[in-house]
Design goal:
mainly beta; 305 residues; Immunoglobulin-like; disordered N terminus; 23 strands; 3 domains; 48% strand; four-stranded antiparallel β-sheet; 4% helix; single chain
Amino acid sequence: MAKRAEGSLSRCVRAFRTMGLPFNCVLLLAASAHAGVLDVSLVAPTTNSDGSALTSLAGYRVYYSTSPSPCPGATFVEIPIPTLSRRNQTIHYQLSGLSTGSTYSVAVTAVYTGGKESACSAVSSAVARGQSVVAPTGTVSFSADGAPIAACQNVALSATQTAACTVQGSALGGGVHSIGARYSGDGRVAGSSGSVAQEVTGGPTNMVAQEAILQLSPLSVNLLTLKATLTSATTHAGVTGQTVVFTAGGSTLCTATTNSAGLASCSILTNVSADVATITADGYKATFAGSADWLASSGSSGLIG
């Protein structure tokens, strides 16, 4: 015999997107082919069939089945006897977890304090109706690897039963993270929670290489300046603190670290007949190899003028 749960059940379904780190929880109420209900009413007697006072009644058993003869049977619920304040008091009970649209037969027996059970009552039949779904309220809180995401706590449910929160930047490093969502419940709809293993990969980047600047020297020792800018492909903001490698003809010319604007710049003393000839013919490349938070990118350019 299964007991009824207080409140409606709910399930939190999560949708997470790697880039931009938006967290969404769509709350689904439990509704299926087994969400049907039947309302049962019975009149509680106060006397035995011979007219004597009924003093040993412990409660009732409500048998139900899709077969025409539910009683006696394996499926029933027990209703404890209430304190009767008046004769022929009506007791109401709702059978739940039934198949919506199916016809159920119901019969009742009386159970006495000594354990004796009466004969089955006459059978009544009815069609299980769909259980009305209560629109939930309340909030959803998100976590990453068991730790609360500070900006995503107590997010209110919208009219579409969705809680959404976006974390800007690389709040989560690259790799696999356990993302959790916990619904608070609201007194009518039970709370629920769930989690998903989400792989977070680096954000896409763009690399733009500028034309190289060559400052000639009468001593044939010349200064070659190379510059490239690394930005986020989604926000177009500069990506700071990343290493950019400048190469030409398969050889590394120099390396530099991007500043707050995403600009990497380096200058080298070079021989015109070697490095400059290669850049003039084939250009040079600025390459970012990628990191845990950012995807690789590269760009090419030539010699100015």
